[in-house]
Amino acid sequence: MTDFRFDLQATDGAARTGVITTPRGGIRTPAFMPVGTAGTVKAMHPQHVRETGADIVLGNTYHLMLRPTAERVRQLGGLHRFMNWERPILTDSGGFQVMSLSKLRKLTENGVTFQSHIDGSRHELTPERSIEIQCLLGSDIQMQFDECPPFPISEEGSRESMELSLRWAVRSKQAFEEKSAPGNALFGIVQGSVFEDQRRRSLDELLEIGFDGYSVGGLAVGEGQEEMFRVLDFTTPHMDTARPRYLMGVGKPSDLVGAVARGIDMFDCVAPTRSGRHGQAWTRNGPINIKNARFIDDETPLDPDSPCPASSQFSKAYLNHLFKAGEYLGPMLLTWHNLNYYQELMAAMRGAIAEGRFEHFVAHFEAAQGAQT
Hints:
Blueprint: E1 5-12, E2 15-22, E3 25-29, E4 31-34, H1 46-51, E5 57-60, H2 61-66, H3 70-75, H4 79-83, E6 89-92, H5 95-100, E7 103-107, E8 112-115, E9 122-125, H6 127-137, E10 141-143, H7 155-179, E11 185-190, H8 196-209, E12 213-216, H9 225-235, E13 245-247, H10 253-260, E14 266-269, H11 271-277, E15 280-283, E16 286-289, H12 309-312, H13 316-325, H14 329-354, H15 358-369
Parallel strand pairs: 4-14, 5-6, 6-10, 10-11, 11-12, 12-13, 13-14
Antiparallel strand pairs: 1-2, 2-3, 7-8, 8-9, 15-16
């Protein structure tokens, strides 16, 4: 059995590139993980997800525990077999979705009781149950159960939430050590909103507990890019250099570039798939709305130099027509294109870091994107 490990290959300033090794294959970093919340990356065939360059996808404890249930997925061979994805899978703990989607939520020291947003059924999610579900799903990288606080939040409210997440981190690790399969990994989650002393305390205690990787949570919840970068500026320099660093729920291309510049290795976000379903295409020169009338007669593809068929083999006029006509193929092609663009962006950053030209890459990226990002 291959052990989980992270091999740092090169640095350029704070930016890093390396490889995370798992029993199901390597993950090149910086890495973007397409979001497959309910066991599928929306509008995408698994083979096409892989062909974009994705080494890993994300699944979600909250959604899969409600439907079809983790126990059923286990009976059907585990999440990899269920969704026909043999590469690594990371599962979120469900904490964010419990806070943002569920009804009649009640938070206690033990965990969270809530009503399903699907059918109103009652459930309880605790650190132990979250880890149990992730083990039943068979994910390769699991997340501690935490509370993701809202923004804005008072300093005292943030402190109470952060301290609860730390207590849950201890219980999550204990459950993981009892239930996990060999080779799997557990990440801790740094909380503390925008308060530097709280972030430092959260990180210090998580490092003392000991995890296979460390995530920065509680960002991309409304604080804005400038504030997010400020938090990373005082958090990442103190993170374990020998472990992967994961910024959760982020983000737009400019977010990814700025976070990599601050030492982050892993990302996930619904932005490329959600925007693709609604007609927004990310390009080297910034985002465009393919439904705009200026594309009605545009015979050029989104990216003639891309190996991705969705990017190079269909005209903007055709994509515009598909969205205007309400055809499913439109969102499918634009999602495919966006995911490919994100993976090309990550590959370009890995190459720039390895060659010691990341600062030049950032300058070129910002000039090309301009104010559109």
